[in-house]
Write a structure and sequence with these properties.
This protein is of the alpha+beta class. The protein has a single domain, classed as Cyclic phosphodiesterase (Cyclic Phosphodiesterase, Chain: A), CATH 3.90.1140.10. It is 27% helix and 34% strand. Strands 5-2-1-8-9 form a five-stranded antiparallel β-sheet, with helices on one face. The chain has a four-stranded antiparallel β-sheet with strand order 6-4-3-7, sandwiched between helices. The longest helix is centred in the N-terminal third of the chain and has 15 residues. The radius of gyration is 16 Å and the shape is globular. The two termini are 25 Å apart.
Length: 177
Amino acid sequence: MAQRYFVAISIPQHIQHILNDLSQQATGKPSPVLFPHISLIPPFMLKDRVTEENISHIVSTIKITSFSAHLGSIDMFHQHGRSLLIIYVEPNTILEEHSTAITTILVPFMTIDTAPYTNGVIPKFRAHTTIDYDARLQSEDEDRMKKLPPVSAVWEVNSFELYKEVGPGKWEKVKSS
């Protein structure tokens, strides 16, 4: 398989602790997610004759306006027989605007990997971070999850990064050129 990349906003350490607590409350175990993030561009492959250095340079020239992000409600969706436990990140409109702007710039250089999506269809953008990739919640767990109180967690977002896959489920930041 070709090298995969994606563009994301990393989640700060103090927010990662909150996500672990939420996972513990919802599933009874810490979050197994190694790299909590907000995907702005889902995994993609480079088109022919586009190098990692090219894409890294292009991404490094894109700037975003700083904004305050905060955690929203917990939800779950199903994909390829797995139950993904997520928490929405707000303000979705600002995150969606950044995603659209970055996608518009990168689309000539990339091909989105649709394999991870049910029926190969990429869903409409909705900013979130994943808490568990296969929650396996029972109906009583889902009920408990829906009753969790809202979380007050705010952080400043002023950048995003390009990442490349270095192993199954393992990603590392691509150094800017």
